[in-house]
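Worked example 2:
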Amino acid sequence: MDWRDQGTLLSVRKHGETSAIIDVFTPERGRHAGVVRGGTSRKLAPVLQPGARLDLTWRARLEEHLGTFNVELSKSRSAALFDDRSALAALNAITALLLFALPERAPHPRLHASTEAMLDLLGHSAAWPVAYLQWELALLGALGFGLDLTTCAVTGTPENLVFVSPRSGRAVSAAGAGAWADRLLPLPPELLGVVTPDFAGIGEGLRTTGYFLTHGLAHSLGDKPLPEARARLVDRLTRG
């Protein structure tokens, strides 16, 4: 059997003397692995870089087999970010989190579209850190750990939302927080998609999404530690 699709390359590892096993994220088949014959060659090694968009043909005798990929480059990304270390760190965090979080062969077309849009911003928009926060929210939502940041969990108001409940994942207003404010997570404007002049809330937003990535998503996966690539990105974006 075989299929054709486009996918974002998540990882590459050597297989045998000249081949490679790749993981890709496709809109219709989710995270999918396969062997690329000659994947370590001079021709293909520059193509097989994390974040690249690939035209894929997958073949196997049976659907449950690992199978083989034929690949053609549709869009390269990592090379264009070589001089932008923060954007390159974001690309690495995105691919690492997808590899960490996605079950094999389970489609997530909306998350795939969000991922492609996010990757296309890197190197082209200075506002990408805000988009990255939105992408982490999309990842949480796609895997069943979505946050509700629309109205206050206590008062029902959509105004002056400044906290997130670590228990429910719902927004809380300043008035609704009351004496519990010091037990709540921050909800900076950037986490709501607002681009502020100095991105002062990026660190707070990453703290909040990081809490749910750790205590929700990673906990459901056996308390595996989050990828180091995300920690490196957080360090770059919050460094004083």
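The longest strand covers residues 2-15. The beta strands are 2-15, 19-26, 30-36, 53-59, 68-75, 161-164, 171-173, 185-186.
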